[in-house]
């Protein structure tokens, strides 16, 4: 009898340990750095985790919000986080070419939702009036950095790019005349626009090359990708499911509106007017030739990436069949 009891206890203990190991693996933690808290395009980790979608895929996310793609990229390079969301494609390629341990594993944004604005009493009417003026972008190496440089070339103006951080700090600097032209990303700035406090002088989509270009990517520390490849693949699958939910369930609009503290109609406008679902498809990488040309023009990379470099840099996590 003692032998049977001992065996039974051992079996129960072994089973409990095995279950604990499964649970530990099932709730694997990924650390994320995310550019611009509140952007619809970057909301999947926050909203998806709150809705239980990432948990369903065995993931717990630790979220750190940054001032922009440049800061996000540095956090990934240093290894303080595993994943970076919303890193400028050109800046990320530039870091990779210089030997930084980062890889791009999914699309963050194809096309452009950002707009550039001035206070309503500014004499500036369009970006063509920006000669001799300062134009804001978030951080060095970010997609907004690339866009401002493209504006200067596209409109043929001799303007001064200035790093101003996130949309909130940029708004303060613009409204106090520290910078002439500010930048914003919905939903930030839309209420001020509706109230007539600011006027849009340019949209990122006015530069033709950006309209179908993957301007921001999701990046991962190369060591983290090697050590947590299965978790990264599950992360992308959870992202896809969260994206589907955010474009199909009114509860997602309600959750987003509460998170960023805006009225639900404004949250719906942000989604439907500025962020078509297909632009956020994590599996979509397009306009790569244009992205590399812009990166060369912006001096992020000395020359377009070779096929071998492209194959090494882009580590897309495709759907498992």
CATH architecture of the largest domain: 3-Layer(aba) Sandwich
Biggest β-sheet: strands ordered side by side in the sheet: 2-1-3-10-4
Report the helical percentage.
Answer: 40-55%
Structurally, the number of domains stands at: 2
> Which percent range describes the beta-strand content?
15-25%
What's the CATH first level of the largest domain?
Alpha Beta
Report the average pLDDT across residues: 90
Distance between the termini: 50 Å
Number of strands: 10
Question: Can you write the helix and strand succession as a string?
Answer: HEHHEHEHEEEHEHEHEEHHHHHH
Which regions contain 5 or more consecutive residues with pLDDT less than 50? 1-24
Shape: globular
Give a written overview of the molecule.
The structure is a single chain. By secondary structure, the chain is an alpha/beta fold. The protein folds into two domains: 29-111 and 213-313, Periplasmic binding protein-like II (D-Maltodextrin-Binding Protein, domain 2, 3-Layer(aba) Sandwich), CATH 3.40.190.10; 115-210, Periplasmic binding protein-like II (D-Maltodextrin-Binding Protein, domain 2, 3-Layer(aba) Sandwich), CATH 3.40.190. The chain is built from 14 helices and ten strands. The chain has helices at 2-26, 44-50, 53-56, 69-78, 89-97, 143-155, 167-175, 190-194, 222-227, 229-246, 250-260, 264-274, 288-297, 307-313, and strands spanning 28-35, 59-66, 83-88, 102-110, 115-119, 134-137, 160-163, 182-184, 198-203, 214-221. The strands form three sheets. The protein has a five-stranded mixed sheet, with helices on both faces. α6 links the parallel β6 (134-137) and β7 (160-163). α2 (44-50) packs across α10. The protein is globular. It starts with a helix and ends in an 8-residue tail after the last helix. Residues 1-24 have low confidence and may be disordered.
């Amino acid at each position: 009898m003692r032998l049977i009891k001992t065996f039974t206890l051992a079996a129960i203990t072994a089973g409990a340990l095995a279950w604990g190991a499964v649970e530990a693996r099932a709730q694997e933690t990924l650390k994320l750095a995310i550019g611009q808290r509140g952007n619809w395009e970057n909301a999947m980790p926050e909203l998806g985790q709150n809705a239980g979608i990432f948990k369903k895929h065995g993931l717990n996310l630790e979220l750190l919000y940054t001032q922009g793609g440049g800061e996000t990229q540095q956090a990934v390079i240093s290894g303080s986080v595993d994943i970076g969301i919303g890193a400028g494609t050109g800046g990320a390629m530039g870091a990779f070419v210089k030997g930084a341990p980062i890889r791009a594993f999914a699309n963050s944004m194809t096309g452009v939702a950002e707009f550039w604005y001035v206070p309503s009493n500014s004499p500036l009417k369009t970006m063509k009036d920006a000669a001799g003026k300062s134009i804001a972008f978030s951080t060095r190496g970010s997609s907004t950095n690339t866009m401002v440089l493209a504006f200067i070339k596209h409109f043929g103006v001799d303007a001064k790019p200035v790093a101003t951080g996130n949309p909130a700090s940029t708004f303060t600097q613009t409204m106090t005349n520290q910078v002439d032209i500010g930048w914003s990303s919905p939903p930030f700035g839309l209420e001020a626009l509706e109230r007539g406090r600011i006027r849009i002088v340019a949209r990122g989509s006015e530069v033709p090359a950006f309209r179908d270009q993957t301007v921001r990517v999701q990046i991962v520390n190369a060591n983290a990708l090697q050590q947590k490849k299965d978790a990264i693949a599950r992360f992308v699958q959870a992202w896809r499911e969260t994206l589907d939910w955010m474009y199909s369930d009114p509860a997602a609009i309600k959750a987003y509106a509460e998170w960023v503290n805006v009225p639900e109609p404004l949250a719906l406008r942000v989604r439907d007017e500025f962020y078509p679902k297909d632009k956020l498809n994590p599996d979509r990488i397009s306009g790569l030739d244009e992205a590399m040309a812009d990166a060369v023009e912006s001096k992020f990379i000395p020359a377009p990436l070779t096929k071998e470099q492209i194959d090494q840099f882009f580590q897309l996590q495709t759907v498992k069949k």
